[in-house]
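FAQ

Q: What does a record look like?
A: Structure on top, sequence underneath. For example:
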């Protein structure tokens, strides 16, 4: 199944000092999150090299995720804010709890992502698998998400009961 069509040619991805390593990892097909070596707090996207939890700027480590998780929350985007998303709307943008990365306090590392399937299929608790979409001529990739073949029975799906009369 092809997901929402995003025209990546309308973007010029120019990594800065804080995100350069992350973009290099994407060329290798690695989904990485930065962790603080002092308190084990994680953050994604890699917007700064310092820990927002304890303030450590000295020692951080990259850890890799296998790219599977659970929908924590989602919205349906119906208005394309950027030209690259004109053909993509409507699409599901989700907050995803990663299965294999946790903060020092045990809570899952969460990141945002675009899900291939529609709002009728995606719900809170849906299981997702990641795949890569190439977004630049030099091999940068962006993580995309699709429903896993194994879904729990207790997914919360939105139903439009107002239109049922």
């Amino acid at each position: 199944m092809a997901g929402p069509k995003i025209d990546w040619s309308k973007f010029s991805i120019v990594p800065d000092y804080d995100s350069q390593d992350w973009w290099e990892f994407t060329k290798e097909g690695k989904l990485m999150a930065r962790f603080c070596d002092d308190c084990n707090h994680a953050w994604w996207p890699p917007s700064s090299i310092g820990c927002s939890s304890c303030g450590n700027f000295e020692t951080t480590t990259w850890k890799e995720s296998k790219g599977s998780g659970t929908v924590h929350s989602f919205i349906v985007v119906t208005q394309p804010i950027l030209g690259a998303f004109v053909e993509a709307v409507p699409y599901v943008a989700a907050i995803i709890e990663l299965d294999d990365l946790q903060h020092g306090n045990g809570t899952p590392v969460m990141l945002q992502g675009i899900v291939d399937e529609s709002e009728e299929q995606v719900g809170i608790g849906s299981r997702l698998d990641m795949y890569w979409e190439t977004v630049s001529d030099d091999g940068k990739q962006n993580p995309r998400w699709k429903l896993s073949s194994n879904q729990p029975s207790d997914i919360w799906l939105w139903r439009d009961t107002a239109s049922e009369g």
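Q: Is there anything notable about this one?
A: The longest strand covers residues 91-102.
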